Amino acid sequence: MDKVAVISGASSGIGQEIAIELSKHGFKLLILGRNLERLEKTKSQLQSEAQCLTGDLSLDLSDAFKAQITGFLSSSSIEQAVLINNAGSVKRETFVKTEIKDWEHALNHNLYSALRLTQCFLPASKHIKSKQILNISSTLGIRPIEDTSAYSAAKAAMCNWTECLALELAPENIPVNCICPGLVETPIHPFFKTQDKAQRNELNGIQPLGRMGRVQDIAQSVRHFVEQKDLWITGVKLPVDGGILLKS
């Protein structure tokens, strides 16, 4: 029997590392992103069977896009299916300089993308007995910082939606949880792989555990959820943040 995972935003950063981690543990993967070349690069690093699917989740899903997801989940040999809503983007800007189009972009890329994919996943996986949904939010969805109003609001909405969906799907025994990464070194941040030692030391120094997060930290947290077929945890917002939320 097979176990499968659908992962959005898998062409780089956290999504790519989640795909790599789950491939080590026997998951067949459908990896999603907007750039086929980058998705193929992810696929080349995987240790299990994988398919690539390109598309923009910030837009309404095409029938062809939905059909590929449905086809991937259609096999009667699947005993476990996981949806990992990871796609997102971040832009820092003061509220007064944030235009409505910026709010629309933040909501589309960080919230509506997950809603669209989940609305496709649930009916397509109806026949699969064991399934779960994991949303990748942010500690900024729990405690925001300045100049992130649109992004933080979108991630806070994802956290709240996670709880609501967990209640709705509990009668079907479908756990829905949310991982909230802290400061993780990924390509979406301007300090990614910086050679500025002073900046790196400063960023590491504000973390209670002494370092910024790595993509592997998030991927391993995902694995701890998905390796349990009969998960008795739902509606959880799990900070994976090196303790940063403990600081006032």
Quick take:
The protein is an alpha/beta fold and 248 residues long.
Question: What layout of secondary structure does this protein have?
Answer:
Layout: E1 2-7, H1 13-23, E2 28-33, H2 36-43, E3 50-54, H3 63-72, E4 78-85, H4 100-124, E5 130-136, H5 149-169, E6 176-181, H6 197-205, H7 215-226, E7 237-240
Parallel strand pairs: 1-2, 1-4, 2-3, 4-5, 5-6, 6-7
- Low-pLDDT ranges: none
Percentage of residues assigned to helices: 25-40%
Share of residues in strands: 15-25%
CATH-level-2 architecture = 3-Layer(aba) Sandwich
Q: Total number of helical segments? A: 7
CATH class: Alpha Beta
* Structural class based on helices, strands and sheet pairing: alpha/beta
Count of distinct strands: 7
SSE string = EHEHEHEHEHEHHE
CATH topology: Rossmann fold
**What strand line-up does the widest sheet have?**
3-2-1-4-5-6-7
Largest sheet: 7 strands, parallel
Mean pLDDT: 94
- Please give the domain count: 1
CATH superfamily: NAD(P)-binding Rossmann-like Domain
Shape: globular
